[in-house]
Automatic annotation (TrEMBL):
Keywords: Oxidoreductase. The keyword Zinc does not apply. Pfam families: Epimerase. It comes from the Bacteria. Residues 10-252 form the NAD-dependent epimerase/dehydratase domain. Gene3D superfamilies: NAD(P)-binding Rossmann-like Domain. This is NAD-dependent epimerase/dehydratase family protein.
Amino acid sequence: MTEINRNAPVLVTGATGYVAGWLVKRLLDEGMTVHAAVRDPSASDKLQFLNRLAEQAPGEIRYFKADLLQDGSYAEAMEGCELVFHTASPFVLDVKDPQKELVDPALRGTRNVLEQANKTPSVKRVVVTSSVVAIYGDNVDLQSLPDGTLNESVWNTSSSVSHQPYAYSKTLAEKEAWKIAEGQKRWDLVTINPALVIGPGINPRATSESFNIVKQMGNGSSKPGAPRMGLGVVDVRDVAEAHFQAGFNPEASGRYIVSGHNTDLVELAGSLLDKYGDQYPIPRKALPKWLVWLVGPLVSKGTTRRMIARNVDLPWQADNSKGTRELGLSYRSMKESMEAMFQQMIDSGQLRKR
């Protein structure tokens, strides 16, 4: 059991990120002092949304300059913290050099933060934002599991630098985190493994692959239809709550799948039709797999025929009961999350009526 002193400051790496923004809000609303590690503390345009949260909350935010790839750069930010949330990690699918752009930053960043935890006597717990893609690589992988269902004991063994490199980077980073954690006895590690994160951002122009997916549902680029690719989705606010509970619940331990709904891209788009279907070109039907296989790689650089073969028209299912049981998690409806995200894109001028 690990008891965290709520009067001690709490470190959040990658504090301007999509999930981190809501986590920072939760901490500030509890009256805590947040040590926000960011690339540039003087970049007021990027920090305006966090500053606004701090102005409206009893807590306090302090900024620290830190770079994922620079050894020792989290030392000052971590000083005096009992709890560290490591959320910083790139989420991009279309990259030229996967090793350099995904694998190296994820691995080095994890090492830098956790090795700093080893050097910082105050640290008692580290919560790392991993992903369900550290558990599986492709939907076809689920066919070898009991009931075709993912759980926390499973690890991704099918991804590599050349196939699903983002998933590969998350798998290596989480394995490295567990290796470092098991090499010491002062602090404990908890990992949060979210499915595709949806919902509104603290920053209405947040950059995350999920924003690209939802934007395509409203800007006409996927009007002909969507591939029936199974996936899990979860609201960003629920992911932030999972982090908070993983940090402060003394009993929290191990990995937690955080996913609200087993769904697919066609159902995801369908959740927008009631409210927005008349005014926006939201896809209404599933594209046949042969067509996705034929044109997918031409439309999206990050899409390969192997990926299509191993994921399209294949279901996705995960057991989220450990998080609901041990962390008390509950999940917003997919419709609520998608409508809030889509409306934010409309309000910020990223989507226009047809």
